[in-house]
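Q: what sequence does this backbone want?
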């Protein structure tokens, strides 16, 4: 599939048929997702892959997740790994100080990796969606259930599988339509 087609084919699908996803497809998707941009090449993102039916059920209960996808991917990011990297000699500023972090760029990196998962899924003729609602998402419960180390933060749950378009209910938010490009792109200044 060409890149434009993959981007335009990508949708947040929440209805999946129960057919298992071949491990080879999961491996290809996550192999390409590992090519996300990474602050200082710290490589601070990791995924937990859950295919076991009982464990998926438990995660859906912990997360109040409606989707019954055959694969759940839990993206995790480590702020500690980034700080450790930026304390290495080639990244320290004069005076031995770490750079100031105006924003937590590690969340940008994990978001980029997730976007690559979405595009790679479309390329594999699969669908994916992300769930990470504030107030519902409880990272501590996922960390305990999946044995995620303390220095990694799970940031949501990606559902992955074959679409069940007959059961898919479009989000009412789609009625808003896409913003005009003139509101999205600003050349030279806002």
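A:
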């Amino acid at each position: 599939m060409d890149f434009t087609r993959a981007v335009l084919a990508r949708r947040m699908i929440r209805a999946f048929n129960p057919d298992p996803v071949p491990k080879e497809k999961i491996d290809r998707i996550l192999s390409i997702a590992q090519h996300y941009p990474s602050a200082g090449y710290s490589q601070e993102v990791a995924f937990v892959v859950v295919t076991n039916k009982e464990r998926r059920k438990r995660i859906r209960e912990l997360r109040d997740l409606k989707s019954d996808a055959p694969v759940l991917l839990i993206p995790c990011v480590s702020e500690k790994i980034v700080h450790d990297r930026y304390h290495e000699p080639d990244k320290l500023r004069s005076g031995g100080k770490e750079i100031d972090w105006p924003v937590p760029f590690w969340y940008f990196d994990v978001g980029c990796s997730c976007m690559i998962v979405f595009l790679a899924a479309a390329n594999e003729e699969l669908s994916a969606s992300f769930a990470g609602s504030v107030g519902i998402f409880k990272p501590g419960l996922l960390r305990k259930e999946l044995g995620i180390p303390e220095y990694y933060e799970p940031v949501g749950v990606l559902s992955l599988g074959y679409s069940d378009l007959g059961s898919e209910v479009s989000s009412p938010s789609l009625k808003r339509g896409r913003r005009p490009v003139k509101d999205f792109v600003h050349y030279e200044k806002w």
